[in-house]
Design brief:
The chain is mainly alpha-helical. The protein is built from eleven helices and eight strands. It has one domain: Orthogonal Bundle (Cytochrome p450). The strands form four sheets. Strands 1-4 form a two-stranded antiparallel sheet. Strands 2-3 form a two-stranded antiparallel sheet. The longest helix has about 30 residues. It starts with a helix and ends in a 6-residue tail after the last strand. The mean pLDDT is about 90.
């Protein structure tokens, strides 16, 4: 599931970030290959402390490949930004972007071109490239992991899968599936609960680091000094029995609004929390809802093979891949 879904999320991001049709699910893409290679190289480097020094890393073949892939990715983003600026008509950037916004055709590059700070200063091309690249890298593998694991959990719980399917069918009963709209997504409460419970059980990002901006006094009186960098285990928080009873059980009803009234907002942190939380969490949740809804309308997902062992890398994967069986549903009424 990971390979297929990762290509789909990359395809979607290229459309939403750059308004570019990569069609990478049907044919090879040099840019997509570079993104995938960079992700693999970062994972490998992260696991070998001797490669953390740039001066050493750039002398070995992996370092050469890393720099070459970086250049390719940066050149692609730069060319999109420069082409967008070059082809602006005489009415000016602001007028063009506002006109595009009215017909909902703004992409991420447009939003960044339109952005200004409190002094009215625009982002530089380098700033825009950094933001776009962050969205591409942070947004494809994490969302792919979230989708793969929620499909796995629904495959293991057919009663929840069928309830999600019926919820989507009821919502779109008089329309074509491709007509799903933004406002529809708020009307899929059970499907949303299933996604959240999967993100609790299988968080795509298992650990984050934060620097303390002040002394932190722990319940036992010990103090974490200001300036110390702490590792925060998202996986550990989500699997702590003191936070979540029976933490290994997949139970979407944990996220029924009636059951979350007394839950701490920091008990569920798949996108981190606070001012440095995930910039793309709304985008990711939206994409997961749409993909899951349209998938369940057309297919039944079933378990395949042995239960996978969780494998935390940059994202949470499965040893040997995550294998599922997918059956097309009949075209007639269900």
């Amino acid at each position: 599931m990971f390979e297929h879904i990762s290509l789909m999320t990359l395809d979607s991001l290229q459309k939403c970030v750059f308004s570019f049709d990569s069609n990478c699910q049907e044919k090879p893409s040099e840019y997509i290959s570079a993104v995938l290679e960079l992700s693999a190289l970062v994972t490998k480097r992260n696991q070998q402390i001797t490669l953390h020094m740039d001066s050493l890393y750039h002398l070995i073949p992996d370092g050469w490949r890393f720099r070459r892939a970086c250049r390719l990715v940066h050149d692609f983003t730069d060319s999109v930004i420069q082409e967008r600026r070059r082809t602006l008509p005489d009415q000016g950037l602001d007028d063009l972007l506002k006109a595009k916004a009215k017909v909902k055709t703004l992409d991420f590059i447009d939003v960044l071109l339109l952005a200004k700070d409190e002094d009215g200063k625009e982002l530089s091309d380098e700033d825009i490239r950094a933001e776009a690249d962050t969205f591409m890298f942070a947004g494809h593998d994490t969302t792919a992991s979230g989708l793969a694991w929620v499909l796995y959990n629904l495959a293991r719980h057919p009663e929840h899968q069928e309830r999600c399917r019926q919820e989507v069918r009821e919502l779109l009963r008089d329309r074509e599936p491709k007509e799903i709209e933004w406002d529809d997504l708020a009307q899929l409460p059970f499907l949303t609960m299933c996604i959240k419970e999967s993100l609790r059980l299988h968080p795509p990002v298992t650990v984050i680091s934060r620097r303390c901006t002040q002394d932190i006094v722990l319940p036992d009186g010990r103090v974490i000094p200001k300036g110390v960098i702490c590792l925060i285990s998202i996986f550990g928080t989500h699997h702590s029995p003191s936070v979540w009873p029976d933490p290994e059980v997949y139970d979407p009803f944990r996220f029924d609004p009636e059951n979350t009234k007394e839950t701490s907002p920091l008990a569920f942190i798949p996108f981190s929390a606070g001012p440095r939380n995930c910039i793309g969490q709304t985008f990711a949740m939206t994409e997961m809802k749409v993909v899951l809804a349209l998938t369940l309308l057309s297919f039944r997902v079933l378990p395949a093979g042995e239960e996978p062992r969780r494998k935390p890398e940059l994202i949470l994967r499965a040893e040997g891949g995550l294998w599922l069986r997918v059956e097309p549903l009949s075209a007639g009424p269900q």
